[in-house]
Amino acid sequence: MTKNLLIVESPSKAKTLQKYLGKNYTVKSSVGHIRDLPPKKLGIDIENDFQPTYVTIRGKGKIIKQLKEAAKNSEAIYLGTDPDREGEAIAWHIANTLNGKKHDVYRVLFHEITKQGVRQGLENPHSIDERLVNAQQARRILDRLVGYKVSPFLWKTLYRGLSAGRVQSVALRIIVEREREIEAFVPDEYWSIHAHLHGKSEAFTADLHKVRGEDPEIGSEDEAQGILDYLNDQSFVVDSIKKKTVSRNPYPPYTTSTLQQDAAYKLSFSPKKTMAIAQQLYEGMSVGGETVGLITYMRTDSTRLANEALNGARQAIKGWVGDRYLPKKPRQFTSKKGQVQDAHEAIRPTQWNLPPQKVKGQMPPDAYKLYSLIWYRLLGSQMSPAKYAQTTIDITAGEDYLFRCSGSILRFKGYLKAYERMPNGYDPEEETTVPEDVSEGEVLTLNELEPKQHFTKPPAHYNESSLIKTLDSEGIGRPSTYSQIISTLYDRDYVRRDGRHLIPTELGLTVNDVLVKYFPEIFNTEFTARMESDLDKIEEGDDDWVEVVKEFYEPFRQSLEAVESKSKDIRKSLQEKTGETCEKCGREMVIKWGRNGKFLACSGFPECKNTKPLKEDEPEETGETCEKCGAPMVKKSGRYGSFLACSNYPECKFTKPVPIHVTCPEDGGEIVERQTRKGKVFYGCSNYPDCKFAVWDKPVDVECPSCGASYLVEKHTKSKGDFLRCLQCKDEFSMELAQDEEAEGVN
């Protein structure tokens, strides 16, 4: 019997859909993109309106063959890739590759992988949206142009292997500029004054609030003392007592950006980890022996909720805590941002009969934590406001000085009842009380005036959460790309983590300075945000993708031409003089950049090729804390390579392996380098012995193009040299698969 063919991009999504659809459908997976720009050349005909050349991705030939075989015997072909630009582009490539007739190839959208969501998608098929395809194609071409044109410039001026990206480099610039703002910060002194007072029976403290109707500005101890001398002779009189009930409303349900921010803050999840787990929750996880989709599509800018979601949330709240916690009407949220992709709802649960407590223990712990975060954020968004009783007492001292004492007490939790259930809870507002026995016009007893010295603080370092918030608010990139942008900054060693802080490395500072100096019109927030807006206009049908790319390319080309002839001079300007003499030719030794960092080289190169390492630097800070004594961990080098060690050595001799920035496929931990008792190197999960995942070959953070496995491993043989292999499907790939991003960057 002829079946309908449904093609999606994810094997796990295909598995869930096949369960819902039964025998009338064959569900196949493309395992992501099947075609892309060529890995070894630009692949864009600049002179012919930037027309791209697409090639089959290495390793996808077998998958394409399987899809064509399945399509031959199918009555209709449905393309159910993710409902966004990227998914639309994948569907477009699949349709063109299958050479299907337009009348029997349909595009379907699944905003949630549930029986209802799948049925709605299949009942509303349509043609591929060329506007979305063009928007994604324009982004891909812009990113390729920047990566393939600017990265070689970095190779010439610093060293081969560095990358520049259209959005990645702007994110780096934001971090660098904040770091330099902190370094240049000069603290200002200021003082505050607090009056310790006594009413009829109760002592309390009031703070100096206004001086002659203005905010107090006390810049020195002498100024503070002058005010104290005056106030000591004044009467402190209660001027007014104001009481009111204050309502606090909940936050909207999660968008892609706010989910990544909250998961970083509350769960210490990297954006990459958050999106990987969210993808699993969307596509389907095993609960009670069945695979079910648990959340809506996780790439969205919208805070909108469908009516069925509002009804489901209200029923869940009513069953949990009762009508008292329900507002009279469902709450809808509107976005304050100008450009919002409103095709999808906010991120929300899809299975109202599966609250977090019901699925606990049936899914990995980290997935449970993220699911709980999404569940209670959504429920909170539809609950009653929190109510606070607020009292403000204003006290005059003489004619010019006003002191204030404020108190706030929580009277009704409202939505905070849901926030309490979130992983790690929430930061409750500190309750403060005021005296109950004072009255207006009462003269208070002054017990003491207390001056306090303060200094202004520099702006805070960015962390992953605050960087994402800034990128989102400035319109830089898309929320779905933030995790890869931040991962790339780590992988390229442009940025390191110090605790939760993002600190630019010396290499990151240097790369940023070069890019900003020679490409100021390209790598800035305003230009990048405007390009993002132009991509949105393409999607909306208000702009032509070729014109948008042309508008970008012209100033870009001019910048390239201006610097191409200067690369040698630029490289020389980045060299640092040392005053040290080359022992081979007598010329001065200079500090240069290389793949392994800075090194000493003879300034007479290429006539003299003498090089040597710099003197050993201090141990590198990592931002991690020793598990035994709490001291900072540092990175050191030993007989068997790098390792992490406690900075409190020799008092504390705790050490541990250095992570290789690959996520364990079994429990989401970090894979680290280890050794057997005989010294043989292998790679295992950092959560050992709870997780016993281990492999002999070094994993790399590259998804298998053939089967979708989350990692590949490095291999080497005499006949093949270096190559990559998938341990799941056994397919082999060239090292270029992992190295392609070095030339292209991310965004």
Architecture overview:
The protein is of the alpha+beta class. It folds into 5 domains: 3-128, Rossmann fold, CATH 3.40.50; 137-185 and 460-570, Topoisomerase I, domain 2; 189-249 and 386-455, Topoisomerase I, domain 3 (Distorted Sandwich), CATH 2.70.20.10; 257-381, Topoisomerase I, domain 4, CATH 1.10.290.10; 575-613, no CATH class. It is 34% helix and 25% strand. The strands form 10 sheets. The protein has a 6-stranded antiparallel beta barrel. Strands 2-1-7-8 form a 4-stranded parallel sheet. Strands 19-20-21-22 form a 4-stranded antiparallel sheet, with no helix packed on it. Helix 5 (130-157) packs parallel to helix 18 (545-564), helix 5 packs across helix 20 and helix 9 (271-283) packs across helix 12 (365-381). The longest helix is centred in the N-terminal third of the chain and has 28 residues, at 130-157. The chain starts with a strand and ends with a helix.
